[in-house]
Design a protein that fits this description.
This protein is an alpha/beta fold. The protein is built from 17 helices and 13 strands. Bound molecules: iron/sulfur cluster.
């Protein structure tokens, strides 16, 4: 086992990797308290992930004091194909190809996340998110480096101001794991960095002078890669700004390194609320006793946890998998918030699905399970166009006095608007207005028979 500290090229000295013996001892007692909390949770609530972790398959000799210490995981991330091949069988040809890929798009997997992978299944949904694929190169010219135009919307380095009342802060590009579908893959080749003190001062000055900003999102690279003390020094200064109402943190730590959500971090977050946390579970196999306990600690610290999934080919692109995921999230009290269409990022084409797939998944969930479980399916437009929510078309026509609506079973109903003098008895009985819409032709036929004009601005999306 490689226990050397991770070499991190920093622009400031605020990162936490590289632990002294003294701090390791301190975290040993944190780890013990983590283990107690985890076993308390497990006694009352069985998380839905059926795989559990393969910790003892891959890391049989690692003691609990290390396994429960997030800094141990960070230092021991798997960052080379050579080391990865000790855990996941590869042919010499595969190794050679993956070496090529990591020359352009590096590799980093935490021991914890690796332990969720079935090493003998090339299609394992956790593996496909973490292990490089040769398709990142063969399809590497498709898409854009910065499809969301974040560089154009950066008003000061690391601060993106696109919407009127909220801004995005990027404090570091360091993530515990490099997700193969990452929108900010372009940043990986610049090495690891964190914002300098001068850059942070410029961000804070911008926030002070823009009184319309009420919501600050701190996101990836993963902000929880900073030490708790460094993060607190920034969050507390944002809290001093009277017009900033809420802070949101975007992090994948609860999923890929849940040990990071320790008592010190939770105490700090609870002191500076309201803080919301958005995390990023993509598959039910990621819901484990450890990740469930991490979310539980956040919730007990008064930090609401929402989930933003990315729709990924052969990983979670089915109604069955997505339903299992959202049900699992609700069991650990995490709200499914967004389901993102995978962005047009170079090196991710092999993981992208047609937009239609997302709409069909939402259609397959809506009405068949609680509305609380159904995320909003969203496409983030290129060139900074922003997020567009997409959903199945339930409005077949809309006139002044009535609408023609399709329910989750495909049955069509008339719905009277207030003020309409028509009632059901006076309405001409249209043919087939009530029934199941089974095809586009059937829907068009119904539209022709509907009284009044349809809304010309409405674009119907068939799913
Ligand atoms: S955690 Fe987020 S920012 Fe970091 S690599 Fe994964 S998707 Fe990208």
């Amino acid at each position: 086992m490689n226990t050397a500290p991770v070499t991190v090229k920093t622009r400031s000295a605020s990162l936490s990797p590289g632990v002294t013996t003294r701090t390791r001892h301190r975290h040993r007692s944190d780890a013990e308290s983590l283990a107690e909390q985890d076993s308390a949770l497990n006694a009352t609530e069985e998380p839905p992930g059926h795989h559990g972790t393969g910790r003892f398959r891959f890391f049989p000799d690692v003691p609990d004091s290390c396994w429960n210490d997030w800094k141990w995981h960070f230092r021991n991330r798997i960052t080379s194909i050579d080391r990865l091949s000790r855990y996941i069988p590869m042919t010499p040809e595969e190794r050679e190809r993956l070496e090529l890929v990591t020359g352009r798009y590096p590799l980093a997997i935490t021991p914890y996340y690796l332990s969720l992978i079935d090493p003998y299944n090339a299609d394992d949904p956790v593996r496909r998110q973490a292990v490089p694929s040769y398709e990142e190169m063969t399809m590497g010219r498709i898409g854009m480096e910065d499809p969301l135009g974040e560089r154009e919307d950066s008003v000061v380095p690391g601060l993106v101001h696109r919407y009127p009342d909220r801004v995005l802060l990027v404090l570091t590009d360091i993530c515990p794991m490099l997700c193969r579908h990452c929108t900010r893959k372009r940043e990986w080749r610049h090495g690891a960095w964190t914002r300098t003190g001068t850059e942070i001062e410029a961000m804070l000055a911008y926030l002070w002078s823009n009184t319309g900003v009420r919501d600050v999102i701190i996101s990836g690279g993963d902000p929880l890669s900073l030490s708790t003390a460094s993060l607190e020094s920034i969050i507390s200064r944002i809290r001093d700004i009277p017009h900033i109402e809420i802070i949101r943190i975007g992090t994948r730590y609860p999923v890929v390194l849940p040990q990071r959500i320790d008592a010190g971090l939770c105490d700090m977050l609870s002191r500076h609320g309201p803080i919301w946390l958005n995390t990023h579970f993509n598959h039910p196999n990621e819901i484990t006793p450890e990740s469930a306990a991490a979310c539980d600690r956040l919730l007990r610290a008064g930090v609401p946890v929402n989930n933003q999934s990315v729709l990924l080919r052969s990983i979670n692109d089915s109604i069955e998998t997505m339903t299992k995921l959202v049900h699992g999230l609700l069991k650990i009290k995490v709200r499914p918030y967004y389901l993102f269409q995978c962005d047009e990022v170079q090196g991710t084409e092999h993981l992208r699905t047609p937009v239609e797939t997302g709409i069909k998944i939402i259609e397959g969930m809506r009405g068949h399970t609680s509305g609380l479980a159904v995320p909003t399916f969203v496409v983030d437009l290129v060139q900074g166009g922003g997020k567009v929510p997409l959903q199945p078309n339930y409005v077949l026509s809309m006139a002044d006095d009535e609408l023609l609506l399709k329910n989750y079973e495909g049955k069509v109903f008339r719905y009277r608007n207030p003020g309409s003098t028509e009632n059901e008895e006076n309405m001409p009985t249209p043919l087939s207005v009530s029934g199941v819409v089974e095809s586009l032709t059937a829907e068009a036929d119904l539209l022709l028979k509907t009284r009044g004009k349809t809304d010309e601005n409405r674009v119907g999306i068939r799913s």
